[in-house]
Amino acid sequence: MFRIAAYMLFGFGVLSLQADENLITQGKTLFQTKICFTCHQVDPAVPAPAGMALKAPTFLGDFWGKEREVHKGLGGPIIKVKLDDEYFIESLKKPLDKVVKGALAPMPPPPPVTDAEIKALLAYVKSLSKAEKKK
Length: 135
Ligand code: HEC
Description:
Elements: H1 2-33, H2 49-54, E1 67-72, E2 78-82, H3 85-93, E3 98-100, H4 115-134
Antiparallel strand pairs: 1-2, 1-3
Helix pairs in contact: 1-4
C-alpha cells in the first residue's frame, strides 16, 4: 500500500516537473515573439537597446522576489513592491498601475498576451532568476 502511494507521488512529481519545463520553454519563445526581449535584458551578452533607452528593468541575476520602488500610477506616490507572481501579472495587464522608479517611460503596452501566455512568461522569467542563484 505504502509502495503504491510512493510510486504515485513519484509519478506526479515527474509529471509536474515536465509541465514546468514545457511552460518555461513556451515562455522563452513568447519572450521573443512578444518582443519582451527588446526592452528586458535576460542574457548578459545580449543587450536590449530599446530597454536601455527607457531604463527598463533587466531580468538578470538574482532579481525575483526583490523589492523595488514604483510609482503608484504614472507620476504617483512611491511605494515598495516585490517582484512576485502577482506584480508580474499586474505589470502585464495594467502596465500603468505601477511604474518602476527611474524608468524614463512606463512600459508601453506589449502585444496582447493571454492569461495562459502570461503564465508561461512568468515561469520563464522566474526560472532565469533561480538559474543565476545556483552559480
Ligand atoms: C518597449 C519596451 C518594453 C517592452 C517591449 C516590454 N517591456 Fe516590460 N517594461 C518596460 C519598462 C520601461 C518598464 C519599467 C516601467 C514600468 O514599470 O512600467 C517595464 C516593466 C516591466 C515589469 C516590471 C519589472 C520590475 O522590475 O518591476 C515586468 C514584469 C515586465 N516589464 C515584463 C515584460 C514582459 C513579459 C514583456 C513582453 C510581453 C515586456 N515587459 C515587454 C519596457 C518594455
